[in-house]
Amino acid sequence: SGSNTFTSFEQDVDYDNFKSFEVEYDNENDGMEAKIEDERNNQKLRGDEAFQELQNRFESFKFDQTTSNEEVIKEVLDSFELDDNYKKFDLEIQYSDGTEKEYQKSNS
Predict the structure, then answer these.
(1) DSSP collapsed to 3 states, 5-29
(2) Nearest of 61, 70, 71, 47 to residue 95 by alpha carbon
(3) What's the distance, CA 38 to chain centroid?
C-alpha cells in the first residue's frame, strides 16, 4: 500500500470566490506526473516537490476501492486540511488494480 495504491488521483475542490484546490497525480509506466494547485493559499507545487507532498498524504489514507464515498471524501478533506465549506468536491481515482471510482459531492 502507500504509494502503490493509485495510478491516478485527480481532485478538484471548488470554494467561494472561484478559489479551488486541485491535485493531479498520474503514475503510469512511462513516467510520473504530480501537481498541486492551491488557489486559497496561492501555492503551486509541481514535479518532485508535489510528488513528495502527495506521497505523505497518500500514505495516511486508510481507504480503498471498497470504502464508502462519504468516508473517502472525509478522509481526503482531512488529509489535505481542507474546509468542508466547499461548493463542489470532485475526485477521480484509478486504483492500482485498475478499478476507477469517482467521488462527487456538492454543498449548496
Answers:
(1) CEEEEEEEEECHHHCEEEEEEEEEC
(2) 61
(3) 12
- Rounded Cα–Cα distance for residues 82 and 67 (Å): 20
Measured distance CA(94)–CA(7) in Å, rounded: 6
**Are the C-beta atoms of residues 76 and 11 closer than 8 Å to each other?**
yes
Digitized pLDDT (tens) for each residue of the chain, 108 residues in all: 444 579 999 999 999 998 999 999 999 888 889 999 999 999 999 999 999 999 999 999 999 999 999 999 999 999 999 999 999 999 999 999 999 999 999 997
Rounded CA-CA distance 84/78 in Å is 9
Closest CA to 38 of 6, 10, 13: 13
pTM comes to 0.91
